[in-house]
Fold each of these.
Amino acid sequence: MFDIRPDSPVALYMQLVEQLRAKIESGEWGPGARVPSEIELAREYGISRGTVRQAMVRLHSDGLLERAPGKGTYVASRTPVTHMLIGVVLPYQADMLALEILIGSEKAARQEGYHVIFSQTNDDRQIQTQDIQLMRDKGVAGLVIFPATDTPYDETIARLHAEHFPFVLVDRYFPRLDTDYVVVDNFDGAYRATLHLIELGHRRIGFLTPGSLDTTSIHDRYAGYRQALADHALPYDETLYYLYQGLMKTDNDLLSLRDILRHPNRPSAIFAVTDLLALRLLEAAQREQLDVPDDLSIVGFDDIQQASLVSVPLTTVAQPRIEIGIRAAEALIERIRGTRVQPAQIVLPTRLVVRLSSGKARTAR
């Protein structure tokens, strides 16, 4: 008899799903074996027929059971591969943050017997919606989703949530949806980056972003930047907020970044919310024949590999990119198996990595 525990935080139907799945995958119930009816299971295990039906629907959707009209329900003739698939939806394949999240997700999934497929949306919400549906059509058991930028709410992801389809968000989240997510402490990371520049004597510190504050990772970094200024009695100057939208596009001339640096009242330091953006800024500064860090200090966020390899190694905030993927896949598998009831909302720590792109302000020397 199955051990169905009414006092468990795991839903009764998911307890039954896991018990039946174990019988099938262990071979105790081989291919073609007849499964007891809903009434029989409900009577034998002291649970409602509705609960049994929920479990049966889940096992059918996973491809483990087959119905024979007029005869009953049987174990599928062959165990499908699709129910052991996890989809990973990324905005950019070439972005090191996204790539290492994928690597971490695949590592954790393999350890649990799952395989990973992934897609690249080019940070386009319409493509993201299409890719999510395509993955569901392929029969994935759940999704790790790195959502598109500048999106405060996404109907497709809200629909997944309403349908109780397993998914975990990474890097960012939607405040109006109580979902599973894995992010880093963006507020604290940005606070530490800004504090580092303040301690070097900088008083005019710019904030450079590739997207709007509708993206929670950017919003939280902006909030950390603002709080560090406030805690050290530095007034916020909205003219030092810079939006650069050419990050993932061909922008060989870096004109808008160079315009910032040509301004007679430019900041002495700039916190860029991604390393890719900080590296663009470093290139723009060099084209303008500015010395980094003597003329301009730069701090990024991510600690991608290129950050330590450029001509002026980048001071940055390191986030555990592979661990984000690992924790996301682990949380997703818990959700798929029904062993998690409350949302997994995981916030990982960051650390400041000081290199050569940040130095003392001229007035502090």
Amino acid sequence: MLEFWSVNSIAFNILGYPMSYVEFLGTIFYLWSVWLISQRNILTWAVGIVSVLLYMVLFYQIRLYSDMIEQIYYLGVSVYGWWRWSTTKLNGGEVLNVRYSPKRKIIMAASITIALTFVIGALMSQIHIILPAIFPEKASFPYLDALTTIMSFTAMWLMTHKRIESWYYWIIVDVIGIWLYYVKEVRFIALLYVILLFMAINGLISWLNAVKLRESSS
């Protein structure tokens, strides 16, 4: 059974690329969760939890350690987001009151993101020395990987609070991710990030339209 979740357990080949079961299933659930959150649907958190667990297994195997740790954070935040959205006003499963954060909080969030990127990048560049038993090989692109990780942390937290600027974070993460995963030869995930980029743009537009609709009806 454990062999099924190995990156070497291939479900099918697509354009010469061997697609593992864990990568394929993680991708399907992730895309579904992103589409749901763009529609402000509370089911996004349940579906997202499944994708988080699958990607945690995948990233450990391909040595993107920051991304693996990121999934642990996502798991906790997904549970929190599910709870938080369930306590707010819904309309047929849709969250209504999406909005921008105050300017001061936007600047503070960006500053914390930049500072933590340097800290985590430095740590991950040495993680194979600090914890060789758990991380036997040197991390790939530790600072760039840390940047996308911390930006994703910030975006996910903002999502739980229904903040529109979270989509700008996701757009930047997706652009970087397209290149990073292509270089790491996880090309289906690179393609996924192309799709996610368009979905993030659509999500931003959808949330902005929800605000306009709310303002016009008030």
Amino acid sequence: MPEIKKNLLLSTDIGTDIDDAAALYLAMNSPAIDLKGVYVTNGPVGERARIARHLLELGGHGAVVGVGEAEAMFSRLPRFTTGAEHFMAPGKGQPDAEEDWLSMMAGQLERLKDAVVASIAPLTNIARLLREKPGAVKSIRTLYIMGGREGKPEHNFSHDSLAADEVLNSGMDMVVVPAGVCGGFRPEAGFLTGLKGSRAQGFIACMASCWKLFHDTSNIFTPQLVGETRHMLPLVPGKRMSHEDFGRLERFRSLLAMLCNSKNFREDPVRHYRIFQNVMELAGENPGAQPYSHVLNAFRLGELKKMRVSDAFAIYAIEHPKKIKTEQAELRIDDLGIMNARPGKKHRLVAEVDYGHFRNYFKKRMQAPAKPRRLVR
């Protein structure tokens, strides 16, 4: 007999970072999962909700979308966002609940009775549900969490450490997929930026390209690099610099300075990409001269070649529990969200993953065009 599908509600901070979008695509096209609802959190939640709705609609999926909590209960760290979520958020992709998302999520849980919930974001939504709808929480079969790192801050725990602490101490059955086990496989950047076959895959490819642009320009083209190139002249033995050479050099330095300003990326990623192209074209036309070769070398060393898809491991754990190994532990976190795993039986902590199987699973599923799916909510 075919396996009964698991009803799933997903809490996500989908945005410019590609791994939430990849996880959502895996969930909406899973033969083992019925994705019933997507609830966004963390910062620009209106834009995040429109991104989620748009990806679902492109894939022909009818899961409801709720606008969850924007502000953390407590965090000592500044909220991370690229600020370019508006670029990915289409105006037409409207959520189902913009204000009373708690009632919508609680209602789904009570109707479904035996749903699983996956949190691939700061745990603010889940903590609010615990505080205000404790009866609905009892309907959660298992909570899957992607988050936590021993000895170091990790985004999903650190950006709301109080919410993470409350959820971990709630007594719910939960499986925690820590960041440390998610680094065993990272797909080539070109795999995600080159996805095609359906409109949904094209949208993910666009998001991946935007994420790569943000990473490359914010990590490589820095004020320090601009300062290092300020006094470099493209001297060629036996050749005097012409006015055209000086003009090209000044244009190069001006464009380079624009690239290192993240405000330009936030306001208009498309224009930022064109500036990036111009910088690389000028550098490519003068590969043996400074400061062009200096910039080319910096790019070769710092370019994002593989992309992190940590959130996808939470969906994988739901679909393939026999391909992961969990250990019993008691998880505690401090005010910075730094996780400490102690001996105990309070939580199930993922310790190992079949990375070969995950690699095949991820690539096969991401390359498969989305299949329209009607949904009974």
Amino acid sequence: METRIISEKQDMRYLNWSHTRNSSGTAGTFLKSQETIDGRKIYYKLSRFDSEKGIIGHECINEIVVDRLLTILGIEHLHYELIHADVEIDGKEYETWVCASEDFKQPGETKATLENYYQINNVSGKTRYEFCKENGWVNYIDTMLAVDYLILNRDRHGANIEVLRNARNKTLRIAPLFDHGLSLLCSCFNQKEIEEFDIDEDRPCQNFIGTRSTLENLSLIKTRIQYLAVD
């Protein structure tokens, strides 16, 4: 699926939305849905939802911005569509923007969160970064850490990195980068907050690998570069 913006309003009131609490610790509820079209599984999500105020976030817009940035940088990632649509939530209609993406699993593949895969397979007691390096994913992880610093991704928990396995073909790979909605100015809801936002401030983020600081996590990359230079 290529990055597209569908401006003509679509009727998507038929979708059923499930409520998911934001795992980053920021107040808000996120709604997700899915359907199968011509054999393709399509996943949908909305920006932050408030039962009283409606859809108040702009995470779907952030997905498209980051999608285009990663395309320019040549980094493998999940592509999104941004769809102008009418949706229905708990019997009430909303005009909003919906983010859509295709399932990145190949036929025969099953997925597991990196957090679960690490807990089951980390028999040698390595750190999460060392474990990924041992599995041949260090370039992916280094790229992810750099990207998350650039966009100030608040939500790279262990379920937002996935491992894809095909038992029959005996293949194992890490999924393309995905889920960048809680980034950029996601905490700003008006012009005043945008103007006062300090892009140089190091804010606490939820990172499965490294610390709660995307800035501090760059030291993992720096350490590896220094090691390669010496080697």
